[in-house]
């Protein structure tokens, strides 16, 4: 319980720094591919991962998952990048909000976009489709899933905003936060120096590579 509370606080602090900063602080690792987009630019998501592995074109396991998800969890769903049907819509969103789910990341499509936006539920997805899905096929919850080239484990933490999505193992939250804060300090100093007239070439010590190219 103490570890969970500590992780929640670490994740809360990380969520204030932005997905790009977290990704860089983690050593340029854990970013989902650029095909995963928020339904609205202002949407943000952060929290521990609850994974769901579903068959394309079927959403039975999403209904089942919502029986087991915990408040604050982020549903991370692998629908195998199938975008010609939307297994998630307004009714599932209503149920997710009732359960206190922090958001949805789905490797597939959703529908009922306007209703989801109006309900203020954070959704990151690969597409939007008007078509519905069946409720017949089994799947799995709380298993490792892979989206693009990133394998996501149950209990990992995921952070998303308009820049994208990044996954951080729970055990790494403290070190990533430390690196992210250090990075923020460096960039704040860069901004100050730029306002004083220093160039980015000087700040990033780019004279040597530019010189090798005959550009200086």
TrEMBL record:
| Keywords, sorted A to Z | Lyase, Metal-binding
Secretion signal, residue range per the UniProt entry: none
| Keyword Lyase included in the entry's annotation | yes
Q: State whether keyword Lyase applies.
A: yes
Q: Which CDD domains match?
A: RraA_family
Q: Which InterPro entries match?
A: RraA/RraA-like, RraA/RraA-like_sf
Q: Which residues form a coiled coil?
A: none
Q: Which cofactor does it need?
A: a divalent metal cation
Under the heading Pfam families, the entry gives: RraA-like
Name of the protein in question: Putative 4-hydroxy-4-methyl-2-oxoglutarate aldolase
